[in-house]
From TrEMBL:
Family: Belongs to the carbohydrate kinase PfkB family.
EC identifiers of the protein: 2.7.1.64
GO molecular function, one term: inositol 3-kinase activity
Cited InterPro entries: Carboh/pur_kinase_PfkB_CS (IPR002173), PfkB_Carbo_kinase (IPR050306), PfkB_dom (IPR011611), Ribokinase-like (IPR029056)
Lineage: Eukaryota, Viridiplantae, Streptophyta, Embryophyta, Tracheophyta
Identification of the protein by name: Inositol 3-kinase
Biological source species: Oryza glumipatula
Domain Carbohydrate kinase PfkB: 246-319
One of the protein's GO biological processes: myo-inositol hexakisphosphate biosynthetic process
PANTHER family tied to this protein: HEXOKINASE FAMILY MEMBER (PTHR43085), INOSITOL 3-KINASE (PTHR43085:SF13)
Pfam families xrefs: PfkB
Length: 397
């Protein structure tokens, strides 16, 4: 389908509804509010729980790391958003949570629950992962409590990210996010995961059709829905794109955007993949940062691809080289005249802009810094490749 000359869409919350709600909340004495458009400070809301990830290969544990989309997402948003953007994270863990002092949870502490921390076993196959075949099989071993609407802060946000991993973002919680946030971005994995019998070894993660879930009716009030190519058939791209902009990530091939009336392919960045975990999460956060910087959706997806590639080059939640981050921010400052125009305005634009190719080229240079940093920090193996999840035996948190 050829891109339409101009495309824009309404934001998640209809302005009238926001005004009415703000007025109602002001009457009730709720703190915050004050309208969203024209905010000096742009605050985001991330909803989804941190978790424990156990990485297995050939029946052997090769690593244990902090996981959960909220950890990857807040890591990228904290690193890549414009200076005036801040973040609130709503996440739940148990008393067994092992990563309270890791960077993301230390900056955005989770709520402690009586139930254990959500935990996944990710079983990596011995075959070389292709761009489209599932590269890991997930089992949910423990599930922490769901996140309820009442767990969300009672104030307005410029944007929200619904990024559950174990079904913790309930339909009513997503609905509350839509009411609180000017624009909501959703990871399909928060909506379409089901868990087979939680017998010994945990429940295998499978997918259900989005249309058959209570989330489907909320799609017209969602701004962006991101799905991996494995999840896309369950989302039903052709139906969903009429309700919101759908982004399908395609691993090392980059991603595609589908909106009502157009679509675009966005090229990837080079990466030396050692662990694919968190690529989709980091993509979504990079994409949201791009919107915060004022990029069109197709241009913002470049930043998504950039951080997706950065995520696969490290095990667990990545640490970014400050030099690389500084380079990225300089590129964005140069490319964009007015940060936050899109997420904070009345409509999104989707089209590839005239700066797209130049932005890709500049970010490619910054991506090379990630590859160089990776290569400098990792012991080379016999075939010249760097250490990957194949070789890892014990991983730092
Ligand atoms: N091997 C890779 N090389 C470069 N970029 C990658 C690679 N794997 C993933 N990415 C980036 O991360 C994004 C998300 O990865 P993907 O594997 O599609 O998601 P998920 O982690 O949800 O399965 C991709 O769209 C791409 O931008
Ligand atoms: O790899 P990705 O699809 O972006 O996201 C992953 C989830 O699918 C997984 O359930 C969780 O345990 C990981 O920590 C990570 O959040």
């Amino acid at each position: 389908m050829a891109p339409s000359p101009a495309a824009a869409m309404p934001l998640a919350a209809e302005p009238d509804e926001v005004v009415v709600e703000v007025e109602e909340e002001e009457e009730r004495g709720v703190k915050g509010g004050g309208g969203v458009a024209g905010l000096d400070e742009v605050e985001g809301l991330v909803v989804g729980s941190y978790c424990h990830d156990v990485l297995l290969r050939g029946g052997r544990v090769v690593g244990e790391t902090l996981g959960g989309a909220a950890a990857f997402v807040s890591n990228v948003l904290d690193a890549a958003s414009p200076a005036r953007a801040s973040l609130a994270v709503v996440s739940k863990v148990g008393h067994d949570f092992a990563y309270a002092t890791a960077a993301a949870p230390a900056r955005h502490p989770p709520v402690l629950c009586a139930s254990p921390t959500t935990s996944f076993h990710a079983r990596f196959s011995d075959d070389a992962a292709s761009a489209h075949a599932p590269d890991r099989q997930l089992r949910r071993v423990h599930a922490c409590d769901p996140i309820y609407p009442a767990d969300l802060p009672d104030r307005r946000f410029a944007y929200g990210l619904a990024v559950g991993v174990a079904g913790e973002v309930l339909p009513e919680t997503l609905e509350r996010m839509i009411r609180l946030c000017r624009a909501v971005l959703v990871d399909a994995q928060a909506l379409i995961r089901a868990f087979d019998g939680e017998a010994k070894g945990g429940g295998a993660v499978r997918h259900v059709a989005l249309e058959a879930t209570p989330y489907a009716r909320l799609l017209p009030r969602v701004a962006f829905l991101k799905a991996s190519s494995e999840e896309a058939p369950y989302v039903g791209v052709e139906t969903a794109r009429r309700r919101c902009c759908v982004i399908v990530t395609e691993g090392r091939d980059g991603c595609r955007l589908y909106w009502d009336g157009g679509e675009a392919r966005v090229a990837p960045f080079p990466a030396v993949q050692v662990d694919p975990t968190g690529a989709g999460d980091s993509f979504l956060a990079g994409f949201a940062s791009g919107l915060l910087w004022g990029l069109s959706a197709t241009d913002a997806a470049l930043l998504g691809n950039f951080f997706g590639a950065a995520a696969v080059s490290q095990v667990g939640v990545p640490t970014f080289d400050p030099k690389m981050l500084q380079a990225v921010k300089q590129i964005l400052e140069k490319a964009v005249k007015r940060p936050c125009t899109h997420i904070n305005g009345n409509t999104f634009t989707f089209q590839r802009s005239s700066i797209h190719d130049e932005l890709h080229k500049s970010l490619q240079e910054a991506a090379m810094l990630v590859c160089e940093q990776k290569q400098a920090n990792s012991p080379a193996t016999d075939n010249g490749d760097v250490c990957s999840i194949n070789e890892l035996t014990s991983l730092p948190s």
